[in-house]
Amino acid sequence: MSHPVTLQATPPAKAARVQISRKFESSCLSLWCVTQRKLRERLVLDTFGPRQPSESKVHSWIERQGWMANVPDAAEVMKDWKPPQSIQAPTDSQSIRRMSRRQCWKGLQLMDREGKGLRVVTSRPFARGEVICDFTAG
């Protein structure tokens, strides 16, 4: 409580750790460092959003943060990267057929454009390869 783990905080000095617990001061430091590293990994993952970045892009971003210790490894961060659940595309053909019949496509809206008629606009980001809609010119 007296030395909270944050993204930019420095670990408590040895004297402060010894004051808290002489016997477990090195374990406390290790736990503090691991916790800060995980916080930083979460920040990196949250920064890049729905599209998977390249490892070099992640590495460059991490370097720009100026962290000197408890720095997450870009390759390790890339292994943990997953797109947000909100943009997971339906991948089974039954779901796609159901959406086609109902013409219920999440993330697409029809809007009236003055003098030009209706247009389709998106209301959320789409993942590469995600089925957006079924269009048939009539």
UniProtKB/TrEMBL annotation:
Domain of life: Eukaryota
Protein name: Uncharacterized protein
